[in-house]
């Protein structure tokens, strides 16, 4: 039964899911164009083709993460409102699956799409790091100068991308936690805001604003009152944001279960 | 041998009340529909029929009272209970972006008793295009799809809210004579709301006339016909009816001809009407279900107008 619901919810969001795939591809294409233009403008060329691939993958990753964040809000803001706007939620309510099963299926679809696209971005980052360092022993150094044939003025964007690729070495689960927290809050905020709207615009905007509002609400008073260091304040923001996001997901499920009218 | 009256109740409404703001859609409704019964729900537009059906389907909760299906609270969503119910709503909300075959594929996975052969039979009878999107179907075609979805899993209880609206006469005939009759033969319970009196007359064992959120007449069609009759009386010149019985549901006076619909009717009441009004003559007319409905509704309307004035 859950399988049929998941297939239905995937079909419901198919337009958005296709857009997500297209947007992720566009991120890496945009990074490639920028890097080729940047390298050519600087009159440089890569010492090895793997550095070029590494810089494209690493350059596309931050753009991809922004896309994943936007789509986490859009997908979770649409999965409930699309059925409410055409009243097919009434059709669904008359069928055998319980409301909990319906909600879980929606959550599985949104979470899978977000985690899969996040996984693609992190994989691209990881590959970029590996390519950047795979021949390090033979080169004897990881210096940026070794990666371009002409080393006087390394191209800014390409060099920056390769530096970002290096940052993977610090990308532990602990360091990536703020990213997961932001995605949880955009998803949770959008799902919760779905209950006041028949259109997906309001929940999506609310979802995107949720981590920003929380960031402002937590870090600014702390900075003004000098209660703790910025690192500690950011850590607090991450935990509060993750907790808020998860609470919103649970609260949204509870509302879905106990709602009186469809 | 178990008779129908000994069967367990499938639908039970006990003081079920539903309000939308000031509007009272269902006013402490009491109803018992036993297993194997086909109950015809008749009522004018805005009488509260759809609200009653939405309460049965758990789409809207009663403000007071209880609504039970198969002995369980209809509000509590129970998968096993839902798998025993087929529902055709008045307004179809099937996924418009799905193709007909996708809808059938999705819904069939939710019912363990889904009958593919029956689905194929109904699809060919209704000439429904599988590759077409629901959004591209006409109202009649969408009704046909809704009927297939409601019937193909052989439900123990079928709830039909205006199921024949939008169907052309041939398909309507086919649905009532073949599809629905076959379903009824299996001893299943049906609650059938319709504006088509001949449809209800053809299939219903019991009928309820629902007006302003309550049943104002209820019983088998034969019971209603024997209880509610129209008496036509010829009065002497210049005379008005002097004795209007409390059983009068609706009356109309045209010159010397006084027509009064009474419930419950009895021969004694007829004799009483003739003698007390000094009638020159009179006769009793059997009413069709449609005439009963019209007279009951008109009488109720007039009663309300009198109360207001």
Task: Describe the secondary structure blueprint for this structure.
The complex is a heterodimer of chains A (262) and B (309).
Chain A: H1 2-12, H2 14-41, H3 49-78, H4 81-85, H5 88-93, H6 99-133, H7 136-139, H8 156-166, H9 173-193, H10 201-225, H11 230-258
Chain B: E1 9-20, E2 23-34, E3 38-42, H1 49-56, E4 64-69, E5 72-73, H2 79-82, E6 85-88, H3 100-108, H4 116-126, H5 139-151, E7 157-161, H6 169-185, E8 189-193, H7 197-203, E9 206-211, E10 214-220, H8 221-227, E11 229-234, E12 248-254, E13 257-262, H9 267-276, E14 281-286, H10 289-308
Parallel strand pairs in B: 3-8, 3-9, 6-7, 7-8
Antiparallel strand pairs in B: 1-2, 1-4, 4-5, 9-10, 11-13, 11-14, 12-13
Characterise this structure.
The complex is a heterodimer of chains A (262) and B (309). Chain A is mainly α and 262 residues long. Chain A has one domain. Chain A has helices spanning 2-12, 14-41, 49-78, 81-85, 88-93, 99-133, 136-139, 156-166, 173-193, 201-225, 230-258. Mean pLDDT of chain A is 87; it is low at 137-141. With 309 residues, chain B is of the alpha/beta class. Helices cover 34% and strands 29% of the residues of chain B. Chain B has ten helices and 14 strands. In chain B, the strands form three sheets. Chain B has a six-stranded mixed β-sheet with strand order 6-7-8-3-9-10, sandwiched between helices. Chain B has a four-stranded antiparallel β-sheet with strand order 2-1-4-5, with helices on one face. The model of chain B has no long low-confidence stretch (mean pLDDT 86). Classes of the chains: A mainly alpha (262), B alpha/beta (309). The interface between A and B is medium-sized, with 24 and 26 residues.
């Amino acid at each position: 039964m859950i399988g049929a619901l998941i297939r239905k919810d995937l079909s419901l969001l198919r337009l958005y899911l296709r857009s997500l795939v297209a947007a992720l591809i566009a991120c890496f294409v945009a990074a490639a164009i920028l890097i080729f233009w940047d390298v050519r403008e600087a009159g440089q060329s890569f010492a090895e083709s793997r550095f070029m691939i590494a810089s494209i993958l690493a350059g596309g990753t931050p753009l991809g993460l922004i896309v994943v964040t936007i789509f986490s809000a859009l997908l979770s803001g649409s999965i409930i409102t699309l059925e409410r706007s055409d009243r097919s939620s009434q059709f669904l309510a008359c069928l055998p699956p319980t409301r909990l099963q319906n909600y879980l299926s929606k959550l599985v679809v949104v979470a899978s799409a977000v985690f899969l696209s996040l996984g693609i971005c992190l994989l691209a980052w990881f590959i970029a790091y590996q390519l950047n360092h795979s021949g390090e022993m033979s080169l004897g150094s990881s210096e940026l100068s070794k990666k371009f044939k002409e080393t006087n003025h390394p191209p800014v964007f390409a060099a920056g991308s390769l530096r970002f690729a290096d940052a993977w070495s610090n990308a532990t689960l602990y360091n990536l936690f703020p990213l997961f927290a932001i995605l949880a809050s955009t998803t949770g905020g959008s799902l919760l805001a779905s209950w006041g709207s028949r259109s997906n615009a309001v929940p999506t905007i609310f979802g995107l604003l949720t981590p920003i509002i929380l960031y402002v609400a937590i870090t600014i008073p702390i900075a003004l009152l000098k209660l703790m260091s910025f690192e500690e304040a950011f850590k607090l923001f991450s935990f509060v944001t993750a907790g808020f996001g998860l609470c919103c997901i649970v609260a949204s499920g509870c509302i879905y279960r106990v709602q009186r009218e469809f | 041998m178990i008779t129908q009256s000994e069967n367990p109740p499938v639908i039970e409404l006990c003081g079920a009340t539903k309000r939308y703001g000031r509007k009272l859609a269902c006013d402490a409704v009491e109803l018992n529909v036993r297993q194997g019964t086909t109950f015809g729900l008749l009522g004018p537009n805005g009488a509260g029929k759809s609200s009653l059906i939405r309460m049965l389907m758990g789409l809207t909760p009663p403000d007071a009272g209880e609504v039970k299906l198969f002995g369980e609270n209809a509000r509590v969503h129970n998968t096993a209970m839902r798998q025993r119910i087929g529902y055709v709503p008045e307004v179809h909300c099937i996924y418009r972006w799905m193709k007909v075959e996708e809808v059938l594929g999705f819904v069939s996975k939710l019912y363990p008793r889904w009958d593919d052969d029956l689905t194929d039979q109904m699809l060919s009878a209704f000439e429904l295009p599988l590759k077409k999107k629901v959004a591209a179907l006409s109202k009649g075609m969408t009704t046909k799809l809704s009927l297939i979805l409601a019937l193909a899993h052989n439900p123990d209880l079928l709830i039909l809210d205006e199921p024949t609206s939008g169907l052309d006469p041939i398909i309507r005939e086919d649905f009532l004579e073949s599809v629905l009759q076959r379903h009824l033969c299996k001893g299943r319970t049906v609650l059938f709301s319709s504006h088509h009196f001949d449809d209800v007359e053809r299939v219903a064992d019991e009928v309820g006339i629902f007006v302003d959120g309550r049943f104002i007449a209820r019983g088998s069609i034969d019971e209603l016909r024997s209880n509610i009759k129209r008496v036509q009386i010829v009065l002497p010149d210049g005379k008005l009816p002097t004795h209007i019985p409390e059983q009068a549901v609706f009356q109309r006076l045209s010159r010397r001809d006084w027509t009064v619909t009474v419930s419950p009717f009895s021969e004694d009441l007829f004799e009483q009407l003739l003698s007390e009004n000094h009638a020159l003559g009179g006769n009793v007319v059997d009413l069709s279900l449609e005439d009963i409905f019209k007279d009951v509704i008109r009488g109720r309307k007039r009663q309300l107008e009198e109360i207001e004035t």
